[in-house]
Automatic annotation (TrEMBL):
<protein>
    <submittedName>
        <fullName>Uncharacterized protein</fullName>
    </submittedName>
</protein>
Length: 200
């Protein structure tokens, strides 16, 4: 058991190093996000090194660290899993792209935002080309396109009616976040319309 635990600790510490290097070098994380990653990395390293720790606790720490990387689509996410594979760190990946292919939609708005912002780049990565067929890659592009159209229609409908229906408030907020974070508001709306949407 000690050897298994020691090997697991080594694998986990290497994972943290890879995450740290990737996040520090990233152009896609702002300083606040980078600080949060560093804080939690240091916190977990301290726990791993100081406390007598069980394999179950180590697996729990691993799960916490991997949550972001399992539940996002983006350049850094792909680079993270590529680095793990290169370093023979074999943690299981729950791939949001598979979910989108199965359900014809993204699980959450933040996943859709990541896909919209980065798919044109990552779809050409070897890691994507090896995991998905040409048809699946095209299907993801179509899912992104449909997601954008659906969100646009919700915003346009609210603009036409000059109100957000009570049952659509959460959806409206998600659509606003999507368009805003993907830099699409100015593509689809005039300055006045954006102001009006903001004030609904």
């Amino acid at each position: 058991m000690t050897n298994i635990k020691t090997e697991y600790i080594e694998k986990l510490l290497n994972l943290i190093k890879i995450e740290n290097r990737l996040v520090n070098d990233s152009k896609h994380f702002d300083d606040k996000h980078k600080e949060a990653f560093v804080y939690f990395e240091n916190y977990y390293i301290e726990i791993i090194n100081k406390e007598p720790i069980t394999l179950t606790q180590l697996k729990s720490i691993t799960s916490n660290i991997l949550t972001f990387w399992k539940e996002s689509i983006g350049i850094d996410t792909e680079l993270f899993w590529i680095e793990l594979k290169k370093n023979n760190i074999d943690f299981e990946r729950k791939d949001e792209i598979n979910f989108a292919l199965e359900k014809n939609r993204f699980r959450r708005v933040d996943v859709g935002i990541g896909a919209r912002k980065y798919w044109t780049v990552i779809k050409d990565f070897d890691s994507i080309q090896k995991r998905f067929s040409k048809e699946e890659i095209e299907k993801i592009s179509l899912i992104i396109e449909n997601d954008e159209k659906t969100r646009l229609e919700i915003l346009k409908k609210c603009l036409r009616k000059k109100e957000i229906p009570q049952t659509q408030r959460l959806k409206y907020g998600e659509c606003w976040a999507y368009m805003s974070q993907c830099g699409l508001l100015k593509k689809y709306f005039s300055k006045e319309e954006i102001e009006e949407l903001h004030n609904l």
